[in-house]
Amino acid sequence: MTADNMDKKRGIYIHMPFCVQKCRYCAFLSFGAEGSPRKEYTDALEKEIKLRAALEKENGTDRPADTIYIGGGTPSVMDISSMSEMVKTLKRSFGVSPDAEFTLEANPATLGRKDGVMLAKLQAYKFMGVNRLSMGVQSMDNDRLHYLGRIHTAENVGRDMEIIRRKGFDNVNLDLMFSVPGESGDDALNDLEKILAFSPEHISCYSLQIEEGTPFGRMAESGELTEVPDEEDRETYHRICRRLEAAGYEHYEISNFAKKGGDPDAPSPYRSRHNSLYWNMDEYIGLGLGASGFINGVRYKNTSDLDEYFAALSEGRLPVTEEHKNTAFDNISEAVFTGLRRREGIIYEDAVRAYLETDDDAKKVFSEADSCSEIFWEIFADARKEACDYAERGLLIIDNEGLKLTEQGIDISNSIMSLFV
What we know:
Blueprint: H1 3-7, E1 10-16, E2 18-19, E3 31-32, H2 38-59, E4 65-72, H3 80-94, E5 96-106, H4 115-128, E6 132-138, H5 142-148, H6 154-166, E7 172-178, H7 185-196, E8 202-207, H8 215-222, H9 230-246, E9 249-253, E10 256-259, H10 273-279, E11 283-287, E12 292-295, E13 298-302, H11 306-314, E14 320-325, H12 328-339, E15 346-347, H13 348-356, H14 360-364, H15 372-379, H16 381-392, E16 396-398, E17 402-405, H17 413-417
Parallel strand pairs: 1-4, 1-11, 2-3, 4-5, 5-6, 6-7, 7-8
Antiparallel strand pairs: 8-10, 9-10, 12-13, 13-14, 15-17, 16-17
């Protein structure tokens, strides 16, 4: 393992596809936990962990994880003893940096009905090394929660947060969903005020997306559901941004806000380190059903079929169904697309490095005298005119260091990002 490899950050994502029930808007890979083979699943995960770790060692690409993220689904519905054994296997197989961020997703009302049960579960998470919780609150209005298909109430959120704090968790993210049909901008801001009352270290805000194949998708097709107009959605988004910034949160990514630390000019210590790996084009290992990974320039995806997942691992092979070796252009294109999600935007030097490090032949195309900005715009020559048009309209900032979206540019971020794909 080279010193360069040791310096690179790496994360591990583990997918738990089980939920108490599927929400009406959810298009994620998940299904009901009742009667599901949860123990068989964590056993299979342990096999995958060992196989993936052995492959990394064989390839000389193994190194400790800087972040671990267990998402879903609802990981908090999983049996504690099975989860604990799986995490032990993970740490023995890959190793974990001493200061690693370890996030577990949880939904209110799934951590335990009785205080003692919940305290014991949270203690078990702490013993595993979990130091960050991400809670799917979505709304603080019980009627809206019922409409969304959530199983918890606003009262559950308050009770859970009180016990979470009592147990010593001091890095908590709460999710807020807005632009729910029938909800006004004032309703969304009222939800936000109630979430702010818990003083979470991180808040993620998402507008509801109606996806095909979901109950909401079918309701939209039949005319039973009417989506919130884009103009209203964007107005609510900007109101949320202004309120959070006034409350002392750093708007560091399109949908993410982190409480500022002691130095207001320094990046917040509560930024999601794991999600930042994705936006920074760092490597991550994906484990579990449907999980994706990006290792040594190769993107891969596991099967989304549970029977195929079990069959592959019982036969001693990884459950990967898709692999793609990134080209130099793939790398710089992805670096721009993901980097523009950050409020700092992208730096030419970082994006060009992602391009030149991929292929030795790519380095020969450019003169050593070329600046990173010259190389960048030569690669994206076809996009330059439209990018400058967006800049003239106040939607994109282009300077000698790089480019970033303005607050108004966020509203059409997909159109701007698509220039670089």
